[in-house]
Amino acid sequence: MTTDLFVALLAGVLGLAVGSFLNVVVWRVPRGESVVSPPSACPACSTQIRSRDNVPVLSWVLLGRRCRDCREPISARYPLVEAGTAVAFAVVAFTVGPAWTLPAYLYGVAIAIALTLIDIETQRLPNVIVVGSYPVVAVLLAVAAWGSGDWSSLLRAAVGAVVLFAFYLLLVIVYPPGMGLGDVKLAAILGAYLASVGWGTLVVGGFAGFLLGGVFSIALLGARSAGRKTAIPFGPWMLLGAVVGMVVGERVWDAYLSTFT
């Protein structure tokens, strides 16, 4: 087994556990509840979930998708979040390998999943996750820069965070109904991640969010599933745009620049 594959498998197992925790975060944070205590319980009968019934994905299958005590159905979202987080962790780990940047990227994946689900359900990006991630992301990117010796990536991250934050803040000032302050705060995190890779990644990732969100909005209008005043969560599109930037940003930017040379 290659080192990259081994790291990916470990990351996948970690992703299952993290995904289970993200289910708690997505349920409790919007309600202002602690994610630490009390222990997880069935939302229907309030019975505390037993340890043997709290194994990611497997418990949902073995319980027949129902609570052991009250037999109320358990939403398929729980195993999907757990499995999805595991797959995302494994893919990122296999792509990056045992690099110093891996912890930062895995943390980014985790908060992206949580924020996407929360924003879709509540149209909010909670400060406890977004602003609370500022020092975490800063430390993880600093450790990555120290480990790799690439201090320029940390400088780019700092500049990128400020630039994308300022750009979104300007948009809110010019047209307040267009997006919320949660999007502005999230922009700082995405700017740091994107710019740490490169300036092309920052430009492409930042633009892709608007492009994808715009296409989705036009599609809803065309299908008459939404009106001009319908509020559409923009956070998920910002996050998806950032993924596009991280994956193909530098190649797209280089191809764009090559058209002028």
TrEMBL record:
Pfam families: A24_N_bact (PF06750), Peptidase_A24 (PF01478). Its main location: membrane. It is a multi-pass membrane protein. The chain crosses the membrane at residues 6-27, 78-96, 102-120, 127-148, 154-174, 186-219, 231-249. It catalyses: Typically cleaves a -Gly-|-Phe- bond to release an N-terminal, basic peptide of 5-8 residues from type IV prepilin, and then N-methylates the new N-terminal amino group, the methyl donor being S-adenosyl-L-methionine. Residues 108-218 form the Prepilin type IV endopeptidase peptidase domain. One of its GO terms (cellular component) is plasma membrane. GO terms for molecular function: aspartic-type endopeptidase activity; methyltransferase activity. GO terms for biological process: methylation; signal peptide processing. It is found in: Cell inner membrane; Cell membrane. Keywords: Cell inner membrane, Cell membrane, Hydrolase, Membrane, Methyltransferase, Multifunctional enzyme, Protease, Transferase, Transmembrane, Transmembrane helix. Its EC number is 2.1.1.-, 3.4.23.43. It comes from the Bacteria. Residues 13-94 form the Prepilin peptidase A24 N-terminal domain. Belongs to the peptidase A24 family. Plays an essential role in type IV pili and type II pseudopili formation by proteolytically removing the leader sequence from substrate proteins and subsequently monomethylating the alpha-amino group of the newly exposed N-terminal phenylalanine. This is Prepilin leader peptidase/N-methyltransferase. It comes from Sanguibacter inulinus.
